Amino acid sequence: MKTFEELGVSEQIRHAIEELGFEQPMPVQEEVIPYLLGTRNDVIALAQTGTGKTAAFGIPLLQRVDVRSHQTQAIVLCPTRELCLQIADDLNDFAKYIEGIRVVPVYGGTDIVPQIRALKKGVHIIVATPGRLIDLMEREVAQLNAVFNVVLDEADEMLNMGFSEVTWAFRRISTRFWPVFPRTVTRCSSRQR
Question: Cα separations (Å) of 163 from 41, 127, 186, 190?
Fold first, then answer.
């Protein structure tokens, strides 16, 4: 078993996750983290709840952010408000020692005005439910032209809820993601039926 240092995790993130009680990487983290720290790598990770998936995708997202830029560089889409808040909290905990990083959750069922204000201040990572992200994109508040990483957490749940919002959002985010997305979605969605 490797250490987080051997996986390439930065000192700031290692310090934060050690404070959270992380000692050794979970199997999904050991496989995914070094791969996502590489360039232009796509991953589909399947693992049970509680196996460390959020850290597996979150640590590389945080580590690859350029905090000098105030542009949104990554998006995490998830099916529910509760999961959105949990992921944003986890990412903020992992990023405790990364000065200047901004992670903002946006989700429906609550006043959109504070979320708009937060996005206008500049945000590096948006954690969002699909419907709210679309709303913010249509209002031209979510500026996603610098996004280089997109995560679909619990994609199976989003498929079960109806995937049209997610595919619409992807088409609007950037055409550079779209060529690989349909094949991946088709494979995943065919397994869900």
Answer: 23, 17, 11, 13
- The beta strand positions in the chain, using DSSP E, are 74-77, 103-106, 125-128, 149-152
Cβ-contact 79, 154 below 8 angstroms: yes
How confident is the model over 155-170, as pLDDT tens digits? Answer: 777 767 665 666 666 6
Tokens of residue 1, six digits: 């078993």
* Helices 11-19 and 81-94: angle between axes, nearest 10 degrees: 120
Round to whole Å and give the CA distance between 146 and 72.
Answer: 6
Sheet with 125-128: list strands edge to edge: 103-106, 125-128, 74-77, 149-152
